[in-house]
Amino acid sequence: MAGNYSWNVLNAGADDPIIPAYNTPEHKYNLSFSARDLDWKIRQGSVGYLISHKWVEGFVFEGSPQFTGAIPSYRLTDAQVTWTNNEGDRTIKLGASNVLNRKVVQVYGGPAVGRLIYLSATVSF
Fold this sequence. Notes:
The protein has 125 residues and is mainly beta. It has one domain (2-123). It is built from no helices and eight strands. The chain has strands at 2-7, 27-38, 45-56, 59-62, 68-71, 74-85, 90-97, 116-123. The strands form two sheets. The chain has a six-stranded antiparallel beta sheet with strand order 1-2-3-6-7-8, with no helix packed on it. A two-stranded antiparallel ribbon has the order 4-5. A hairpin with a 5-residue loop joins strand 4 (59-62) and strand 5 (68-71).
C-alpha cells in the first residue's frame, strides 16, 4: 500500500508574476494497492496487480483571458494486472486509466477525458 497527499499554497506576494499561472489545486491525494509475484495457480508464471485512486480538488485554471475558468474536483481510479512467466523474460500487462470512465477536465478549455485501456507485451532476449 502506498499513498501521498499534497498541500499546495503559494506564499509569495500578490505581485509575484508566477501567481496568475500557478494552476495547481490546493489539495490532492492518491492511494495505491499493489502486489507482485502472486502464485494464483496460473501455469508457468506469476501475477501482479496495481489499483490506484486519485482525488484532485477543484481550482481556478488561469491562462490567457479566454482560457481562465474553474476546473471541478475529480476522482480517478486506475488498475492494471500483470503476468510474468517463470523465467522473467515475458510480461503481459492489461490495464486502464480512469477505469470508471469518469469524464474529467484537467485544463480549462480542454476536452473531457475518459477511460484509456491498454495492453502491453514485453519480451527480453
